[in-house]
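for the recovery benchmark. tokens below, seq after
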């Protein structure tokens, strides 16, 4: 059953508590170290993929990351020359770290279910390993908020599976799912079209990620 109050899901409760803080501590790496991790996992750095997917996005585009944690993805975009960067994070501990590790990036405490911005405020809204932590019944609400705030593009990098599949996460149930997130957006919003998608098989196991870029099509109902 979907949660009845936006932002009060079991997953967000866990993320805002010690479980989420432990995740942040385990993943306290630099942007450069994150690039090396992506290279090890997929054979591509995150920066290389960013350049491929965002080649047509102007450097002054207004960009929001939903679930930014300590801000590494935004730092990588800043290094590529993007100047109007925003991050939403539900965990105060991660948000405090993000603010101390970055400059000229705007951060706000909130969740994917309640983005405190006007309709179509951002040229591009993106997630990276965030939708996977939203239960399938609650996912449409989060995607609707992302869709509402995106003027033109929605970008994602998430665990992939053809159908929604729950995965045990560090011995816990109800905290991680993999699915076809690009098609979930396309099914839910008829004004979206797929611009580009790349499946990313892990080099050392059988898991697969998907990176995708969606665009709003003017005039679609």
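predicted aa per position
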């Amino acid at each position: 059953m979907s949660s009845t109050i936006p932002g009060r899901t079991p997953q967000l409760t866990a993320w805002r508590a010690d479980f989420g803080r432990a995740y942040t501590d385990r993943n306290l790496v630099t942007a450069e170290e994150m690039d090396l991790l992506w290279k090890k996992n997929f054979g591509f750095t995150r920066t290389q993929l960013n350049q491929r997917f965002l080649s047509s996005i102007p450097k002054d585009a207004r960009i929001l990351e939903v679930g930014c944690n300590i801000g590494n993805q935004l730092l990588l975009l800043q290094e590529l020359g993007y100047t109007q960067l925003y991050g939403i994070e539900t965990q105060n501990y991660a948000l405090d770290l993000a603010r101390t590790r970055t400059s000229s990036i705007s951060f706000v405490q909130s969740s994917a279910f309640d983005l405190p911005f006007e309709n179509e405020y951002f040229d591009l809204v993106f997630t990276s390993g965030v939708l996977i932590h939203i239960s399938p019944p609650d996912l449409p609400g989060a995607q609707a908020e992302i869709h509402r705030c995106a003027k033109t593009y929605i970008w994602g990098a998430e665990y992939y599976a053809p159908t929604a599949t729950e995965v045990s996460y560090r011995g816990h149930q109800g905290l991680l799912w993999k699915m076809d997130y690009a098609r979930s957006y396309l099914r839910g919003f008829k004004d979206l079209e797929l611009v580009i998608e790349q499946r990313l098989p892990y080099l050392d196991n059988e898991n697969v990620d998907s990176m995708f870029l969606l665009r709003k099509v003017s005039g679609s109902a």
